[in-house]
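Task card 7
Instruction: Convert sequence to structure tokens.
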Amino acid sequence: MPCSLILFLGPEVQVDSDAESRDVARESCNLTPRKKLLMRKNQQLRCRVTRLKKKWKKTTVQSQSAAVRKAALIQTLSNYLSGPALKFVATQIRLSGKKMRGRRWTDSEKTFAMSLYHQSPKCYRLLRKVFAFPTVQTLRNSLKKLRISAGFQQVFFDGLKAKVATMSEKDKICAVVFDEMSIKEHLSYDVSKDSIDGFEDFGNMIGRTKYVANHACVFMVRGLINRYKQPVGYFLSSGPISDKDLKLLVLDCIDRLFDIGLNVKLVICDQGSNNRSMVRKLGVSNDKPYFMVNDRKVHVMFDPPHLIKNVRNNLKKHDYILDGHLIKWDYIADFYAIDSVLPIRMAPKLTEKHINLPPFSAMRVKLATQTFSHSVAAGMATLCSLGHMSVDALYTAKFIEKMDCMFNVFNSGSRTGSNQYCTGITDSFHIPFLKECYIWCSKIKYLGKPSVLPCIEGWKLSIMSLISLWEDLKTRNIDYLLTNRLNQDCVENFFSVIRGKGGHRDNPDGTQFRAAYQAAAVDSLFVSSKGSNCLEDVDTFLLKLSNLTSLATEPRDVEPLPSNEVLDLMPMAVSQDLSDIEENIVVYLAGYLVHKVIKKFTCCDCVNILKSSLENRIDDESEKYIFLKEKQY
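Output:
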């Protein structure tokens, strides 16, 4: 065999005969120095390959064993953790032992890290010293791929199109929600695009102008049957967007959603002057609460939380008149003055802030709904029946009760429940009630200027739109409609996330808004701030009662309530003795506790004793609050 072949053949080549090996050895003695050097290098490389093969086999066995152990550990932890917590721990286990440059991240892991960085960059850098998280530059590079700018983002419509392809026809039914927030006037230079940010920008459809932007408007699509939401575009404007431009944007958004397969049935906005003008330009009225797009009906509704706030704010300024009776804010203030000094209150959520409305409190939805509540209405009616308030306050109590019931119909969150007003829309009860509310709203007059309030007209349009929407949905085999999705809460909470960037930033500029929008639009883990003006999804309230044993309950000899109709009560002299009010409250709370306790008893004798003690009561004077609390009028 030639010497050159011996030098360069692989390790698997072997010499079959000893004679040939001896011949090769003799010939090697006659090799040149260069060939001897190459031979030594060849032998060294063969030894190195052999060592690396052994090391690779050992490392493979160890890595496979470690992977098995990690998988077993994650499986065990799944019995104790779930959701984001399990994903986070699994990520830390998976990346344990790996060098920083050898870590690889999934999209879900990046978005989770992005949500933490959005809340506090300083905290995120601290967490990176303890846990395995992507670098800040990795997060920024991920966002740069989106290339989001003002206008409708086609990347979101493309993503929605893929999702819509797997949806059922019911899930495709959705609403377009839009709202505006104030931003800071500021110009900045964008190096990546070689442009100046901060001017008015309406995207490719309308373009940019020379005016500096101080408002940002966000459009969002929200499912009416299935719970999903997605921002699809934002626009920067100097002041609120004009009604003409707003109409073009709304129609363009609806056309794009129709093209990808979504079925837009509703447009929701607040009662800004530009929005009201835009609605009129679309040809929407109380008699025709919809407009046509591609031969499809699209209904229009004003945000119910904004409507009830405006009704409360206008009532505080001037009185209403309804069926010849005054509806006055003073009566609500008088009720609070009496109720606030009681040991146990009839309306415990009503506070000084509800009555006087300090700065920025007028924008709080919770304060309006707690003022226009069934507890306040029942409490006022009880005080009137006991003679502690003028009987004229009964009309205000009835107005409050009606507003509470109407708002509950627009805020239902479950199909069934003890309060029929808070259940999903059906034909049996809600539609006749809504028609009754429309007639009732038509009778409300305002003693200030203008005499016809936009908020009352907004209620009338929203009522007719809800009735028409339900008639349309019934034809698509929809059994019921939960109305707590017919509002702007999704956009308001989105704004809360943007303002919460880096802790708290109420007034971002255009560049900061775009960066926060970019991050928040792709991550479902972002949550609104604790002091947000809207509900995240469903909030539960817990009422705690205490100090029941300190109240005296002496019965009084007073004529019983003559009729089930509150307005039939005769005026009574105002008494300075509040013991009858306390007695009514104690009886109500005692009955509530008995109702709850009976469910826990297994002893029939105890249950019968409690029931018999309630059935034998004949003192109607101390049970007026119970009657009015249970009554929906």
